[in-house]
Amino acid sequence: MSVVPAEALPGSALAVDETAAPAVAELGPRARLWPSLCAVYRAQLSRARVARIPLLFVATFQSIGIMILMRGVVDGGAEAQAVVAGSSVLVVAFVALNLLAQYFGQLRASGGLDHYATLPVPPAAVVLGAAGAYASFTVPGTVVTAVFGCALFGLPVAHLWVLVAVIPLAGAALAGLGAALGLLAPRPELATLLGQLGMSAALLLGVLPADRMPEAIRFTRDLLPSTYGVEAFARTFGPHPDWAFVLGDLAVCGVVGVVSLAVATWAYRRAAVR
């Protein structure tokens, strides 16, 4: 009696068709930018909430202290408008530029970028999500600083609603710059130094009235992304604001934000593959 394997039987369910092509596993759909961005934003917001709130108080008190100090040498007019606007945007610079540069510098040094590289999210979602989370912490401090400054210098508060545009646009420009500095710096100490220098530039070039600066310093001031947010906010304190110039400053701030976030995304890709 001969024994025939079951796989060789024509009617058997176990018969193997050698001509059949091997099954190819289907990959899941590629992660889209917006859902990935929202997920990273919520994760970063939850993680940084406890650690960053004390630093937000520091940034707010720092800006309020600067305005109190400047009150002794500035009486009012355009100089007071520049001080209040610059101090308000300084809160954004402290968090979005300084702290974000430190965060990405430490993340790169500790190997944390490897974790994000394994996630099925676009690189832009990581950068935009982290930048948006850090910029969100600046909203209450900026509003408190602006209201306090208006009361201190006797400026009108009718157009404070322009902060709805100034905060996200200036925050995007400064957050993109901070992320790029942190990702491109070879050492976390250098990223911290660059973030501190950027915040110092926003302090000196944004808070001090531009009319008292030398011409060379004014040119450097025009290169700083936060300058256009300061100018847009300061123009709204006048009795009849020129909204065309306000929109122009906000547009420049928005373009700089797009460019800086694109550079930060490129820097993230560059750092993640190393």
From TrEMBL:
It is a multi-pass membrane protein. Pfam families: ABC2_membrane. Residues 49-234 form the ABC-2 type transporter transmembrane domain. The chain crosses the membrane at residues 50-70, 82-104, 125-154, 160-183, 190-210, 243-268. Its main location: membrane. It comes from the Bacteria. Keywords: Membrane, Transmembrane, Transmembrane helix. One of its GO terms (molecular function) is ABC-type transporter activity. The keyword Chloroplast does not apply. It is found in: Membrane. GO terms for cellular component: membrane. This is ABC transporter permease.
